[in-house]
Amino acid sequence: MFLELEHLPNNPTLQGQAELFPNIQYSKSGQFLSLLVPWAVNQAREHISPRPVIVFVQGSGWTTPNLNFEIPMLSKYAEAGYIVATVSHRSYEDGYKLPTFLKDVKCAIRFLRANAEQYHIDPERIMIYGTSSGGNTALLVGLTGNDEQYRTDEYPEQSDAVNAVAECFGPTDMTSIFENLAGDMEVAEMLKMALGEDESTWIEQLKALSPVNLVTPENSQIPFLLLSGTVDPVVPAEHMEKMYLALKEANADVKAYYVDDAVHENNFWSPEVRQAIFDWILQKFPVD
Q1: Is there a smaller number of Cβ atoms within 10 Å at the N or the C end of the chain?
Q2: Cα 278 to Cα 126: distance, rounded to the nearest angstrom
């Protein structure tokens, strides 16, 4: 009997396939990251070069990020050939004052470089991408590469500098965020936990954590992508605007998008937004 069946090709290079390796401890402080890895890295390594890495920091208000929140979105990057590391960090709510979060994320980047051979990582190609407080973190990481004040004693021989930064609705001027909430008792208590009891130090600490204050021609020689919703009630679009102008003044390679009628998270994530970010990463931080 003749079967009228069609034939399809197989996938010898495992293109478009990815797997998740969750909860890899990167620090003696008990912090974890999860890796989204192209199948070929573990099953056909001889056929592909070491992979570029996208380090992703989920927004959490500088508390503990949910490592799994954006896994569905990020899997697209692993399917395209990137290794994606979603990174956790310590929370001010647990007594770890700012900028502990920044030290932790930088430690994770050094961990990835220290273990580049094991994970088939190209240590010369690491970028960072973040949302909300994770966007603030991404910008700070991008502008403070190898800054000794944020370096811990783990993997000291490795660099924590990155090759590109993408961020969505991240605070860039921390002083304005909290000045707008002056008098709110809950915010005051949060600041005490995050910055310490001495209120006279808060403004200077917030300035140091404001990426817009840190931009120089020397530290902004990597590409930056900025996105903000036009009606974001949490981090208004003026944060992106200030950052864009500061980077432009420093002659940085920067691209920025308004997302029309978008708030904080939620309706921000249109297919067009996801595609614009994906296309920018492919262009500025190519996979091969």
Answers
A1: N
A2: 16
